[in-house]
Amino acid sequence: MYHKLKIWMNGELVDWNDAKIHVMSHVAHYGSSTFEGIRCYDTAKGSAILFLDEHVRRLWESSKIYRIEIPYSEAEIKDAIIATVKANEHKACYIRPLVYRGQGALGVNPHRASIEVAIATWEWGAYLGEDVLENGVDVKVSSWHRLAPNTLPSWAKAGGNYMNSQLIKMEAISDGYAEGLSLDQNGYVAEGSGENIFVVRHNILYTPFAGQSILPGFTRHAVMDIAKRLGYEVRETLIPRESLYIADEIFLTGTAAEITPVRSVDKYPIGQEKRGPVTEALQHEYLKVVRSGEDPYNWLTFI
Ligand code: PPE
After folding, report:
1. Residues of the chain with CATH 3.30.470.10
2. Helices (H) and strands (E) in the chain, counts
3. Which of 137, 231, 250, 280 is the 20 to 30 Å CA partner of 262?
4. How many whole angstroms from its chain centre is CA 86?
């Protein structure tokens, strides 16, 4: 399947099987890459990319934090993303722009390494399994904490940061859960291995604040906008672990996961052990935009 797709690499569309890097690329040894995860939806008004400008901006910001200078403009990369989606004839897809340090530097100091850019696309369904948008997922609190402040920068969506996500994810999977939730260095809830988290209690939404070892996601932001429009109060605050166990509802947000309900945490049942009414209202509004193409929030770029 994938071998029929094209990947944009440093300005050219190449075959999937030819999109290779050298083993002595800096990124292979030290995780020196930044990337994005973007979705293109098949709306009733045609294919549209969700939060295109925001994702490309964050790719630049993640790169700036790691002192990576991207040898293209943001406009060039947006055009390249659209060209790749079109070349692969997707109606809906996941888009993965990747910036990485290539050859030229042996050793930690990356400054002599080339900066390479690639954009891959593929069709990706439900991130945490089928039916989960309705039935929810079982998650556990990870024994691994999230990146502590001033160690790896959680605001940068960077390759190396995801070694921590992998530890969280692998532990969860091997223990029989769909996802792991990480706590910050002080023991407060941070996020999932690849999603932000919201807790609902007495019709109020709680989510960790942006400085709390999380990647402040665009889906998180979208949910806050929808919640306010629907009249829910949203509080960005510290979330103690025990508040998870007595929550009315919990859900995870991310480009890949969209809005995924959580039905249990550490085997404690959450609410009715399926999608709750607040989650459903928010999910409905989010999916309405990406399915209908009606875009009162100005989220979509039609291609
Ligand atoms: N936290 C983390 C750690 C994270 O990786 C993501 C996205 C989010 C929060 C939510 O951000 P946003 O997509 O802007 O709402 N995770 C991406 C990568 C997943 C992967 O397996 O790779 C994604 O959802 O595309």
Report:
1. 2-122
2. 8, 17
3. 231
4. 22
Name the E strands within the chain: 6-9, 12-15, 33-35, 38-43, 46-50, 93-101, 115-122, 137-141, 179-183, 189-192, 196-201, 204-207, 233-236, 249-254, 258-265, 268-269, 300-302
pLDDT tens-place string over residues 230-274? 999 999 999 999 999 999 999 999 999 999 999 999 999 999 999
- Residue to mutate (ligand 1; options 255, 290, 299; most atoms within 8 A of CB): 255
| Coil, helix or strand at residue 21 | coil
Q: Tell me: the pLDDT tens digits for 135-144? A: 999 999 999 9
What are the start and end residues of each CATH 3.20.10.10 domain in the chain?
Answer: 132-292
Q: How many CB atoms lie within 10 A of CB 248?
A: 17
Note if 274 is an active site residue: no
Q: Which of 206, 223, 212 is nearest to 285 (CA)?
A: 223
Class of domain 132-292: alpha beta
Q: What is the average pLDDT across 57-69?
A: 98
**CA of 51, closest atom in ligand 1:** 14
Q: What is the pTM of this model?
A: 0.97
Fold (CATH) for 2-122 = D-amino Acid Aminotransferase; Chain A, domain 1 (3.30.470)
Confidence of residue 71 (pLDDT cuts 50, 70, 90): very high
180 lines ligand 1 (CB under 6 A): no
- Which mutation among 39, 166, 170, 196 tests ligand 1's pocket best, with the greatest number of atoms within 8 A of CB? 196
pLDDT of residue 236: 98
Q: What pLDDT, in 10s, does the model give residues 107-118?
A: 999 999 999 999
